[in-house]
Each structure stands twice: as structure tokens, then as C-alpha cells.
Protein 1
Amino acid sequence: ITILTFSLHYIGMSIGIALVFLLIYIVYAVAIARIRAEIGPPAHDAEMIGPEMLLLNGFGARAIGQRNIALFSRTYWMSRAYRSHPVGHQLEGFKIAQTLGASNRRFLIAIIVAVVVGTIAGFWVFLDSMYRHGALNVYHNIASESFRRMEVWLESPLAGNDQMLKDVGLGAVITVFLMVLHQRFVGFPFHPVGYAVSCGWVLSLAWFSIFCAWLIKWCILRTGGIRLYRKAVPFFVGLVLGQHVVGGL
């Protein structure tokens, strides 16, 4: 975090804002890791709730300063949404390594190599696509979204939004309350992760598929118990794998 803080400071962001920004981002990453490890939802996009939103609503645009606001557009790639955050994929990779009895140390080295190679390849593919087809054609409106947002913040500076912070606090209290109930009462039907991810864009499209999967699982367990459930699992894993293979091809 020290290297990242001074990297942001090097491009012009104040030390204090850079440090708070990264600390909030790390809290988000830890929360995503816990969500992925505990229940593995199909998405945890959490759009438009980046650290800059908490900073601006907590302190106001004038206190943050124009330079820091302008530089928030340079961190937009990492704070816009979290459905592709690498921490979930890394956790699943370590779980696969653990199941196979592979060395965690060697697997960590493989992840680091993949990050380096993937970053270089990603930059090349991204820039090549931009120049060949145009940014708006490849990336739609997201290419200019961060700068339109910056323009609004600079021309019409936001004041601190106490109501937004109260809403965040209320959401945290409800999540903790659901977590306590879920841990203390076996079979409690409402999971805190469901509350946290249900407002995401992807879940608004996938909720019926999730409901159907739950209903089928419930019927299998009610009629055949855990033995039938274990026999049925490979079939449904095959459905998931088939969708990904076809989509990938």
C-alpha cells in the first residue's frame, strides 16, 4: 500500500486522499474475498460505489480539491465496478491448488507471472482495438464516462452528503444483523451476502436463473436427499461448463 500511495502521489494526488482511497479500496477487496469464499455468488459488481464516492460525499468536492477530483478519473478503471476483481479468481485458484495438493508457493508464483503477462497483453489488445475500431465502438460510453463525471464534479462541486453516509451506515447495520442471525439460527433463510449483492446490475438480470437453481436443488434434496444431490451435481456442473465453453468459442 505504501508503493501504491506514493505512486498516486507521484501523479499529483495528495498523500492523505491517496491513502484513504486505497484503504477503502482494500476494505472492498477483503469484503469481495469474503463474499466469494463464503457463498460464491455469480456476480458482485457493486457499480458506482468506488472510494471516491465515499470521499466526495463525506467531505465535499471543495475539501477534496480539484486536482484530486481530476485524478479520480485516472483510477476509474479500478473503482467503477468490482465484478471482475481479481481477488475472487485468485481465491478459487488457491482452492483448486489445495484440492489437487499443489504447492501454494508455486501457485502464487504462477499467479504473479500471469499478472505480468496478462497486464502487458491486456494493454496491447486494448490499445490495438481502440486504434483499429475507435474507443466508442469498442468500449461504448464508458470510454468517456469518467471524464463526464469529472466535468460535473468540477463545474458543480458536490457538498458533503450526510444522508448518503447515513444510508451506508444503515446498510452496514442491517448486514451485521443478518450475519448474526444467520450464524446463530440454523436454516435462517436470509443470507447477508444476498442483501449485499442483490442490488447489482448483473443480479437484476440473473435473479430468475438463481431462483430456478435454488428450486431444483430444494426439490432434489427433498425427494432424494444428499445421495441424489451428489449424483446430480456433475450434470449441473456440465451445464455451467457447457455455457462457458460455447461462450468462449
Protein 2
Amino acid sequence: TQACERIALWRAAGHTSIHVAINFSARQFENRNMLDLVGNVMQRTGTPPQALEIEITESVAMKNYETSIHLLNELHGMGIRISIDDFGTGYSSLAYLKLFPLNMLKIDKSFVNDIPGSHEDMSITRAIMAMSHSLNLDVIAEGVETIEQLDFLEEAGCNFAQGFLFGQPLDVASATILLEQGLPDLR
């Protein structure tokens, strides 16, 4: 509810291209009324579906994959973007990955931490990106802290990155100020 209310305020202030990713916990995702709740909040706040991205972890998605496929298809059908968070740390089967209506995979920071020093982490990261792109999914790398990591990720074809290199987590007031001032250019 709070995220949709905030999106509505930002959109009213002219920030119409913003979208917000919301992490769903296992408890939230398994709530029997989740689809109705999301739809009602979006309608009440006037939040367009393209302004939302639902993130669930790989382990939550695989916990009850048949239910997950149904719920994710319903959310995706509403126009909401779907992301798998912390990809590579769970126990998913790649056979089920193709059944989820995903828009993005988020590479867990545990693979990014030792880039560019770890040949293994670089290889795994490249493989995740190649697989994701072949499935027409965007990729975001989590935990980017150095220019060297960013350089590797850009060269390898990563679509997006997040982490302390770009800034510390922000509260709503600070995020609003940043939106008003404009995002800084790292290059």
C-alpha cells in the first residue's frame, strides 16, 4: 500500500516514468488474497501496472512452484513486471524457470562481490546473463560497489546494476529529493 501511495505522489509531481520494485516476502506472496489486495491498492491509488515490479526470491518461487506460476501469471497479466531476486542462490530447476512469466533476473551480490578477481564468479555471471538474454529477460546485478565491477558487467552485457557504487539505500524523503534534483551521472 505504501509503495503505491508513494508512486501516486511522485507521479502527481511529474515523475511519470518511475517504477518501483517491491520485494514480496514468502508470507505476503502466499497470502490467499494477494491478487485482490494488489489490484485493489493499484485501483485505489491510481497506480498503473507498469509502475510496479514485484520481486520474489528464487526460493519463494520454487517453494510451491505450481501456485507460483499461477500467481505470477496473474500479476503479469495485470501488467506488473516480475523479477526473481537473488538468482543463483536458491535451488531452482532451470526447467521451471521458463514457465515463470518473468521480466528480469537479479544476480545475487555473492557473485558480484569478487569480480573482477574471481574467474569463477565472472564465468557464472556471464552464464546467467547469457541464459537470461536468450530468454528475453533483463538482468540486474546486485551489490555493485566498484567501477571495476561495473566495467565488467557493462562489457558482459548486464542491463542494470544496483549497489553502493550508486548510493546508499534512501528513505522516502531522500529519494524524493533525489528525484527532484535529478540522478547523478557516474561516468
Protein 3
Amino acid sequence: FGNIDQSEEDLQLNANFLFSEFSYGNTSHLGKIGTEITRSTQTYSREETSYAYNTPIPDSAIPDSSITCDSTDPACITNEQYFDTRQVFEQGKSQVELVTIAAYIQDSVVWKRLELFPGLRVSYDDYLYNTNIAPRFATSYDITGNGSTVLFGGKNRYYSGTLLTYK
């Protein structure tokens, strides 16, 4: 509700390492590890207070009375209805500076036409002081054996989102 300006500026340093492929039994493995450091500045600005009105009460719901409104009240229509609930979105500005550190490890395991991608990512931020552990798993199956039709799926957990809500 209302005009909101948001911005984000990031400075990021990444290092990713790919290990040499090796075989173990009938499978081949290709491991990866990596780190990331991000410094982020996020800003939020709502220039004017905004309102949302809810729960209309019709004139017929008021016994022996009729609704009389002030002509400047946007939540009321004389002899028709008024809104019982109002939400206020206050004008305001905020800025958050955040440093996030993360590391991950992942393996690519290939067996015939099946490929598995188990992994784990750990991150920490200096604003909420959260350490997040995010397991990752994905798999793909080459149905035709030539790469033209591949079925892919997985289950992953991602931690992200705006910190401006908390600010």
C-alpha cells in the first residue's frame, strides 16, 4: 500500500573449488566446496502513511440508526456503510548493513544414467546472529541416455529474505 522504494547494494567475494573426478565402485564423483562473503546495504522508504480499510458494516446492521459520516472520512458512506477495521502503514525509512558468511560442500554422484547431488550449506549473518544449516539434495535421470530428455527433482532449503521487516 502506497509507494515504497527499496534498494540493495552488495559487495561479494566467492571462492569455489572443484575436485578431480574419481571413481568409487560403479559410481563417479565430482566434489565441490566453496565460500562466500557478502556485505549488503539495504534501504527501505515509504514516503507517505497509507491505510487499508476492512470489515464493512452496512447501515442495515445498525438497529434504529443510520450511518452519518464526516464528509472527509474515506472509511464511511452516509446511510450505506462504514469500515470497522483500519490498517495503518506508517511513513518511514530504514537502512540495514549486513555481512553474511557462507560455506558449502556438494558431491555429484553418477551411476549409469542417474545423477545425485547431495550437499550442505552453512551461513551466518551479523545482523540477526543466525547460523543457518541448509541441506541440499537434487537428482536427475537421463531417460533416453543421450541427454535429450532428463527428469530432474530435488529438495532444498534456502534462507534469504529482507531484514528490513525486522529493522
